[in-house]
Amino acid sequence: MRPKTIMLFEQLYLLAILVEVVRIALQWQLAASAPADVWIRIAAVVISLALVLLASRARKRIAGIVLAALFVIGLPTVATVFQAGLDTASKAFIVVQVVLQAAAILLFFAPASRAWYAGR
Q: TM segments (predicted)?
């Protein structure tokens, strides 16, 4: 049986993905001028979803490590949230997303999670 930390990891990360889907939907009209950006964001959602499910359901530890690496690589871009030109709703969505992802990744590396991946 999966430990509670893995179940919470999955739930929090899926919630972060849902926040991104809502953000994409709310900005759909705005994104019409740059359709490539929309498709990149949709691809990122699909890849994230696959990695979360591989990590939490298929017990593939490498998928969680890839998610953590992508999160760390993407952190510097979060600074763009505070630049002018972004509406308040977008800023709030991004901050919520980052907090959810950070909490999920911490749970992924919790001792109970590590023991589950090690088969103990």
A: 12-32, 38-55, 62-86, 92-110
